[in-house]
Every structure is written in structure tokens, then in C-alpha cells.
Amino acid sequence: MIVPMVKYSFVLYHKEYESFLEKLQELGMVDITIKDWEPDDKERQMVSSIEQMNKTVDALSKLAKEKDEGVEVIPYSSAEEALHKYTGATEELNRLGSEQARLEKEIKDTAPWGDFSPATLIWLKNDNVDLHFFTKPANEFRKILPQWQQEYIVEEINTVGGNTYFVVVGREGEPVRIDAIEVKAPDETVEEKEVLLARIEAEIKAQNDILLRASGNLDEMKVLQQEWKENLHLSQAATTATKAAEDTLVILEGWSPVEEQGRVDSLIEKASVFAVKDEPQEHDDPPVLLRNNRFARLFEVIGNLYSLPKYGTADLTPYFAPFYMIFFGFCLADAGVGVLYVIAALIGLAKLPGKYKPFAKLVMYCGFSTIFFGFISGNMFGVVLPELGIFANYRDYFLTADNMFMLAIGVGIFHILYAMILNIIFTTKYRGFRYSLGLLGWVIIILSGLAAFLLPNLGITNFGTSSVPFWILMGVGLVLMLFLNSPGKNIFVNFGSGLWNTYNNVTGLLSDVLSYIRLFALGLSGGILALVFNKLGLEIGDTLGIPVVSQLVTVFIIVFGQGLTIFMASLSAFVHPLRLTFVEFYNNAGFVDGGRPYNPLKKEKNNNNV
Fold first, then answer.
1. Which of 86, 149, 378, 601 could form a disulfide with 385 if both were Cys (CB 3.0 to 4.6 A apart)?
2. Higher pLDDT, 233 or 361
């Protein structure tokens, strides 16, 4: 559900509003409306500092995880010093990295020329002797060398990697015209460059030690990071306030959960501040705070991938949550993989920090759904369960591919109808019953058609396409959807709108239902792919006929294939339910997006107050 909000309009004397904002920040309950914020130079610097701190904390968090447990780190005296040292070290590492790469390339390019004296090259140049350095593919060099030697003094130096390195002796100023790649004469020997490289590597190690030491201040830096964010939020609230009465008064708009207004009222009374309290109006943009039960709360992260609902509309999280879990299991449909998910989730619940435990619980629920659909479809790591002797007496209880196909279609129809009924309920609640009449007509027609098709097959013949109740319901539905779909407009506009909606709904509903076939297709394809890898591993192992090697090859192919299958199937099981939720379900349930998150002024110590 969306937590109800109360609107506060604060009127403050300009010398008091900053101190009042600090009190609101201490309370941590009021979301100040920030409109048309244009940062000044100070705020731009704050944003830049926060971005730098975010990168620093992320990098040092990774470094802290990778460091050896036995390594003792002596932190710097403060988080500010650690940040300064980190910034300087990273800049120096970038420079040293470029220098290291340059030297490594030069060593690679110089090595084929062997041991030589740069001083001798200079001495020869001063004596009017110029050495030209060339390289050419070795096979071509051998063929053309006799021709070159008729005109030039050619000295072969080395052959490396299929290329011959050679020197042509000439007089200074005289060009050497041969078909080969001329390279720059080495200015230093390999030994000299290796000394420089060793020095660079030592400097890199020293800078990495600085980074490692800075990681000892990670907790302090996280605190400072939070303080900077809080200060920026406070500054935003202060600079976007509306000024009146020749800038002597400041007007602020804020929002607080209705259940917490007593604490806000108490603060207002103590601070002797004039404030007007009101309910949200249609033109307002209140922040959105979701509050759901323990199960649905786990799926809020899924809904946030799309958008928060707009305030004053319905939060669909508790309504799509069980379906997302079902769809995930349907798409994966492998009991063995489901067991792995549950085991991984249990380990996560035991080992992960508290803020990550909800993700582990979400994985666990999806794992249970995967186990269920894996068993009813008879698939475990590509093994067909009904073919095992242990399940011989229960083969009739497993669902065939045809059964799974019909189940996917049935689930899809139910899901869409469920969304449409929710749309009717929420439209009635937030806008009025008359605005839901057109949609109600569609639901009546769809339900009547389904009943006329299904009931006779179940032996109930009182309701069919030739029965009077069927045509009465169809008539009622047609009237509602064609003539009452746009309240307040004349009959002709309603009829035209109804015809247009009929075309859109027929084509849309058909494509929506067909989307659910992918539930069956993805589950089936994952099981087939796992089965293929199992057979491939066993057949190749049998073909080799070498006792130990055969088993190793078989295990490798099966493990690799199963791992690849699990990855691909898990990705599909995550993505396709998202599509069914955000497209089919949200569209038919009338989801309204655009909500902004509830972001009250607060300090870190107050994070758990709400």
C-alpha cells in the first residue's frame, strides 16, 4: 500500500528557516518539496565531492574484500586524509600505469636488437656513418637479401616471431631505398629500460600500499559520505524555498506520513513556527512511501525496476508478487535448480549482512516455486522423473507438455482477468464507479464467453451460447463497453470510443494471452537443453572407451552444460516475468507510474525512525 501523506506549508522568518530545517533533519520525518533546483558553485562542489567519495568508497570496498586476511592495515588519522591520499595515489597510478605500458612496449620492441651501445651509435653518426634499422618477414628477407647486398651493407641482427631484424649501413644524409619497414633506432638498451621498469613497478607498489592503507578508513569514509549527502539535501531544501515579503519570509512545502504527524506537530509547536496542515490535492505531487506485508515487501525491488506508482493510485506490489514468483518457477521448471536456489538463499540468510537478507528471501521463494513446477513437469537437471523407477506408480500425476501448455494459457487468462478486475476496483475507489463501467462490460463479456465454452465441457449445459442468460450478459456487457465507457460525453462519442477500444482490446488481449505461452516454452526449452547435455556427455564418454578419461570428459560436459543451461534459464526466468508484470499486468490493471520516492530530511542515526 501507499502510505497516506499529510502536507505541511511552513512560513518562517528568513533568519530562522535554516535552523528549523536542521531540526527537521534531526527529526527525519519530513520530505521537503524541491522544485527547479539550480545548484550554485558551493552545491556543485558538494555534488563533485560526493561523486568522488562514491567512487572512492566503491573502490576501497572492493579492495578491502580482496586483501589478504593476515595483512595488517594502519589507517590514516581521518577520513579526509584518507580521501586525499587515495585521490593522489589513484592519479599517480594512472600516470605510472601509462609509463609502465610504454616501457613494456619499448622493451618488447628493443629486445630483438640484442645488446648494443647507444653511445657507439652516436659516435658513428658523428663520423658521418648512419645506421638504418629495418624489419621484414623472414621468408621475404632471405629472397631479397642478395639484391640488397649489391647496393648496401646489410647486417642481419635477429629473427623473432617470423620477422628478421637487420641494419643497413649508410652515409649520413643519404637515403636508403629498400622495401622494408624502417623503425626508430633504440635510444637505450633493454637492460637500461628494465631498470626503469623495475623502478616504476616499485613506485606502483608504494601507491597501492597507500590505497590499502586508505581502506582502513572505509567505515569513517562511509560516515563522511552520508554526512555530505545529508548536507547537500539540506542545502537543496534551503535554496529552493520560496521567498516572500521582500525576502523576509520563507515558505516551505513538506510531506510527512499521516501516522507520524504527531511528532511533526510537536516539533512545530516547540519551534514556534507557523504551519498549515492539509490533505494532498489533485495538483500536488506527494512523495510515495510503500508499506506492505513481509511477503510483498520482498517484491518492491522488482516493482522499482519500472517505477513507483503515482500517489493517489494503487500500489500493485502485493497483487503481482505471488504471480511473479509463480512465473519464475514456471519459466525455470527444474526441481534440481530450485533446490540449488533454496540452498544458496539459506546460505545468504546466514552469511549476508542484514540489508541483503531480503534478496536472499526473494531467491528462496522463487526457488520453492521452481521446485514445485520442476516436479509437476517431471524435470530435474534434464532427468525425466516419470521415467525413473521410483516414480513408476506416480507417472499419471506428472503433467505432460500439452498439460503445461494449457496451464500456461489458463494462468495467462486468469492473470489478465485478475488485473482487469483490480482495475475496476481501483478505478471505482479513486475515481468513481461510473468510470469503470466500460471495463466492467469487457469483463462481463470475457467471463460469459469463457463460461459458455467451459461449462458445457464440464457437463453443465444450462449456460451456453444458445442460452438466454448468456445473451443477456453479452448484451449488458456490450451496452457498458460501447455506450458507457466515457462518462460525461454524448452517446455518439461513447459509441465511437467504444468501437476503437474494441479493436484495441481484442488485438491487445490476444497478444497478451499469447505472451504467456513463453512460460511453457521457456520451461520446456530449459529441460530439453539440460537433457541434451546429459546425453551428449554420456555418449562422448562411452565413445572414448578410456576408463578414467571417459568419466572425466562425461562429468565436464554435463557440469559445463548444466551450468550454461542454469545461467540461460535463470536469466529468462528473471526477465520474462518482468515483462508479464510490467506490460500485461500493469497495462490491464491500470497502473499509473510517475511516483517520486519519499526522501525526508534526515541524519543517518534517524534512518530507522520510519
1. 378
2. 361
- E strands, 420-507, in order: none
Residues 211/60, Cβ–Cβ less than 8 Å: yes
Cα distance between residue 419 and residue 582, in whole Å:
12
3-class SS letters over 369-385: HHHHHHHHHCEECCEEH
Interatomic CA distance for residues 467 and 451, integer angstroms: 12
**Cα–Cα distance for residue pair 517/402, rounded to 1 Å:** 12
Distances (CA, A) of 456 to 415, 450, 459, 473, 561: 23, 11, 5, 17, 47
Q: How far separated are the first and last CA of the chain, in Å rounded? A: 15
**C-alpha 273: how far from its chain's center?**
44
Q: What's the rounded Cα separation, in Å, for the pair 75 and 79?
A: 9
Could you give the CA distance from residue 373 to residue 519 in angstroms, rounded to a whole number?
Answer: 11
Whether residue 299 is predicted with pLDDT greater than 90 in this model: the reply is: yes
Which residues are registered as beta bridge partners of 132?
168
Distance of alpha carbon 61 from alpha carbon 57, whole angstroms: 6
The pairs formed by 59-64 with CB atoms below 8 angstroms and a separation of 24 or more are 59/86, 59/90, 59/211, 60/86, 60/211, 60/214, 60/215, 60/218, 60/221, 61/218, 63/211, 63/212, 63/215, 64/215, 64/218
Q: Which residues pair with 288 in a beta bridge?
A: 597
Band (pLDDT 50/70/90 cuts) for residue 375 is very high
pLDDT 10s digits, 238-269: 777 777 777 788 888 889 999 988 999 888 88
Cα-Cα-Cα-Cα dihedral of 334, 586, 307, 604, to 10°? -70
DSSP state of 397: G
Name the packing angle between helices 41-66 and 79-110 (round to 10°). 70
Is the separation of the CB atoms in 109 and 183 below 8 Å? yes
Helix axes 41-66, 218-239, angle to 10 degrees: 160
With contact defined as beta carbons under 8 Å apart, do 370 and 343 qualify?
A: no
Q: List C-alpha distances in Å: 243 to 202, 250, 253, 276.
A: 59, 5, 12, 17
Cα 444 to its chain centre, rounded Å, is 40
